[in-house]
Specification:
- The protein is an all-alpha fold.
- Helices cover 80% and strands 0% of the residues.
- Helix 2 packs antiparallel against helix 3.
- The longest helix has 35 residues.
- The protein is rod-shaped.
- The mean pLDDT is 81.
Length: 111
């Protein structure tokens, strides 16, 4: 009976030591996992900030490149060259597309 009790106590100590070593290993792994994904919140915050700006820059870049409203299949001779009035009209259309995005961005920034 006494030998059996000694064996059970030794087994219990062994289980406690193993449990403690597992607990410490898990603590280290969780710490490593937290440090390895620490960049995610900052990246998401940057994307939330930059997405309205990028949405506004895409039409502006197309306008600046001179490809606004042209198809790739149209030849240079077939499409009419726009003068000052055409450029002003394209700028107004661009502004009409960008203004709602800008207003939504400003509203979201003040809240």
């Amino acid at each position: 009976m006494n030998a059996e009790r000694t064996d059970l106590e030794a087994y219990k100590r062994e289980l406690l030591q193993r449990s403690e070593s597992y607990r410490q290993a898990l603590h280290k792994e969780v710490g490593q996992a937290v440090s390895s994904v620490a960049w995610v919140p900052k990246t998401l915050s940057t994307l939330r900030f930059a997405s309205p700006i990028l949405l506004m820059l895409a039409p502006a870049a197309a306008f600046a490149a001179g490809r606004w409203g042209t198809s790739r299949t149209a030849t240079a001779a077939a499409r009419p060259r726009g003068g000052l009035f055409g450029k002003v009209l394209m700028a107004v259309r661009l502004f009409q597309q960008v203004k709602p995005l800008w207003d939504g961005y400003r509203r979201g920034k003040t809240i």
